[in-house]
Amino acid sequence: MSTITRVRVHDVRFPTSRTLDGSDAMNKDGDYSAAYVVLGTDAAGPDGEPLTGYGFTFTIGRGNDLCVEAARQRALPLVGRDVDEALDDLGAVYRELAADSQLRWLGPEKGVVHLAMAAVMNALWDMAARRAGKPLWRMLVDMTPEQLVDVADLRYLSDALTREEALAILRAAEPTRAMRIADLEARGGYPCYTTSAGWLGYSDDKLRRLLAEAIDEGYRHVKLKVGADLAEDVRRLTIAREVIGWDAALMIDANQVWDVPQAIMWMEHLAPFRPLWIEEPTSPDDVLGHAAIRRAVAPVGVASGEHGMNRVLFKQMFQAQALDFCQLDSARLASVNEILAVYLMAAKFGVPVCPHAGGVGLCELVQHLSILDYIAISTSLENRVTEFVDHLHEHFTDPCVVVDGHYTLPTAPGYSARMHPDSVAAFSYPDGAEWRS
Amino acid sequence: MSTITRVRVHDVRFPTSRTLDGSDAMNKDGDYSAAYVVLGTDAAGPDGEPLTGYGFTFTIGRGNDLCVEAARQRALPLVGRDVDEALDDLGAVYRELAADSQLRWLGPEKGVVHLAMAAVMNALWDMAARRAGKPLWRMLVDMTPEQLVDVADLRYLSDALTREEALAILRAAEPTRAMRIADLEARGGYPCYTTSAGWLGYSDDKLRRLLAEAIDEGYRHVKLKVGADLAEDVRRLTIAREVIGWDAALMIDANQVWDVPQAIMWMEHLAPFRPLWIEEPTSPDDVLGHAAIRRAVAPVGVASGEHGMNRVLFKQMFQAQALDFCQLDSARLASVNEILAVYLMAAKFGVPVCPHAGGVGLCELVQHLSILDYIAISTSLENRVTEFVDHLHEHFTDPCVVVDGHYTLPTAPGYSARMHPDSVAAFSYPDGAEWRS
């Protein structure tokens, strides 16, 4: 019998605020950070090294230490567990960790303790895929509909999605899974768009140059940040349409800065630029507000989800017809267990999922999820495009590879969540070399 | 000039799980705890001692340390501030602390970082009332409608409550404030109900005895925990009606254990006991779920709010007509600034607020809020009754005083939030005497 022997959680922070990478109307100076979980075992991995699981949640700096400590507390009950028993039933492990009523009080299922749950479960899913010798997406599409539903967290969802409905969605897709794997391979992967051009802190010249580069690199979708100043937004969107033309899709993102009536007013002025969507027009908690905005700004779509705190919020977003695009976050929702539930609801309600990415490592995770969605859940690429931001990939041992606007299919075992040990050491906060200097 | 000189945050935990005080269907073994903030200054207080502010948020044990550290980080920007400048504009201080975009990412406005915001702002409001030499409720009802609206956090609410509407509510109540103060004094305080009888872990004999005592003590409302086992619930509610009769009001509380269809089914069996309300029938995040349950279980009322994460959730609860009773929590919402906004929305939508209390110190806080509501906001006592649980008051220097089912009006300066230094020392976790033994 092999056991989980060790939990280490690292406070890793990248000083991105120095260059205004990632700047938007709400988040002016984030330091992209990870509460990075390493679960050690005394089991032999497929490569002869000890089997290990790597996972993280994403933050933008201060308070990353809170997630580190919360993840440590979440993971401690795992130490001493039988590796195979845990990995063979990640639904049971998830339910057990989620049932800690004292930690639950601090959410429930939201904020720091839920981000910590994401980090720990991400590490367990990574470990499971490494044990299987498969990339996570492949391990998941090799599971039966029953196995997938058993690990999904369907609590509080039965008024919107029953277990039987979830099974029916997965069973309908099952016979044709192989066809869609072949299709993705033929296309060169899963389609993505880039946000790298459009940060609010960039100059007009840099904006113009980055947009032109994005089109040259094969992207058909680009995204710009808006919401700080209306005249500025009009000017920058004018530049954007000059550079990318009117055939490429333009998305805009307000990062929660508006009240509901203000969002509707502002969008009257930005609608002439024909954005595909307005992202995070108001508080991410405001289901009814998003629904009201959506009714007012159509045919511009409404997108939200990177701050979608849990599956209960997404359930209501679907029930209220509040979203045209669901942008779930792989490090805010509690890993595959909760994300599966959101994908299944999205499929039932016919809402395309275009996951949030960027930050640090989110692209590495979401490629697996988008691929899973196409192969085994929604079976569609229509209106689906996954975010890609070209930052910080060099710190991962199995970085995502984007070619011609597509995430190529990951092939290495795991959830692509492992960072280079040198990066972890150098960017550890506050004692790593990059922070001491 | 006097300045805020010092932030101390204490991890205070009471081992309530040893006696099953506070046990319910979701929270079987809570250790009632406080992340307890002490803000020191070099200003002279009215009593000659240095002016100090005391505040806290409430948790049930593990993870209280996360709130302690988050509160410390939230409060650090206050050190070195001019005391009068800060206390003269607590709206500005609130907005500044809330605008920390890096900490905001961890919510936003929910979970650990929001509980920490509550603790810190509670300490500032306590300090402001001590400086004024008044109990908090009195300081608040001595403020003008404009001053109250200026400190209220109305962000994201303008589709439900404009600043002008908020002012109109407060102005309508202003001329008759003195009359209602006199009315409360004549009645012996603000009406309350007791939960002390109904914890799930208590035996039938203890339940019967405590219910009889409650009626003898003058309570006209009692509350029981339900939701773990339907046959048990029927048996315990039968006992309750035998003891209290059919004239006293009986409330029941499921503490979030049900899915929406399950709540509706379960309540078909409990409705014959004519409960005034079913509290927390499902996930506290589920606005549309509460609305569906409310439509199904009427005339039984639906109550929720102790886990209501922020004002945006309550806005939607009101917009969706999801609640008959709003049970906001004084240590989960971000203190007076956010609580005022919820009371003002409740007044506009005609929903009575019956605050959650119990835990440790929540009764001490909410008495001030209920009194404020009656005098300056809703102007009504109809369908309003504030929770009271007779636990842990001995640890406070100005404990609430309940006589004949009423909170008597606090008279000491402050927000009644100060604990005895000996209690803080003895119950500090993990090194206090009570935890070492």
Describe the structure.
The structure is a homodimer of 437-residue chains. Chain A is an alpha/beta fold. Chain A folds into 2 domains: 4-135, Enolase-like, domain 1 (2-Layer Sandwich), CATH 3.30.390; 173-422, Enolase-like C-terminal domain (TIM Barrel). Chain A has helices at 64-75, 83-88, 90-98, 101-104, 112-132, 136-141, 145-151, 163-173, 177-187, 204-216, 230-244, 260-270, 287-297, 311-319, 335-349, 362-377, 421-427, 433-436; strands spanning 4-13, 33-44, 50-59, 190-198, 221-225, 249-253, 277-279, 301-304, 325-326, 386-388, 402-403, 406-407. In chain A, strands 4, 5, 6, 7, 8, 9, 10, 11 and 12 form a 9-stranded mixed β-sheet that branches. At the A-B interface, helix 1, helix 4, helix 5, helix 12 and helix 13 of A face helix 1, helix 4, helix 5, helix 12 and helix 13 of B.
- Number of helices, counting only DSSP H or I runs of 4 residues or more of chain A: 18
Helicity range of chain A: 40-55%
State the CATH architecture of the largest domain in chain A: Alpha-Beta Barrel
CATH class term of the largest domain in chain A: Alpha Beta
CATH topology of the largest domain in chain A: TIM Barrel
* N-C termini distance of chain A: 45 Å
Query: Which protein chains make the most extensive interface, counting residues with beta carbons within 8 Å of the other chain's beta carbons?
Result: A-B, 61 and 61 residues
Number of domains of chain A: 2
Specify the CATH homologous superfamily of the largest domain in chain A.
Answer: Enolase-like C-terminal domain
Mean pLDDT of chain A: 96
SS-based structural class of chain A?
A: alpha/beta
Oligomeric state of the chains in view: homodimer
Query: What's the shape of chain A?
Result: globular
Low-confidence stretches of chain A: none
What is the CA-based Rg of chain A, rounded?
21 Å
Biggest sheet record of chain A: 9 strands, mixed
Strand content of chain A: 15-25%
Q: Name the helix and strand elements of chain A from N-terminus to C-terminus, one letter apiece.
A: EEEHHHHHHHHHEHEHEHEHEHEHHEEEHH
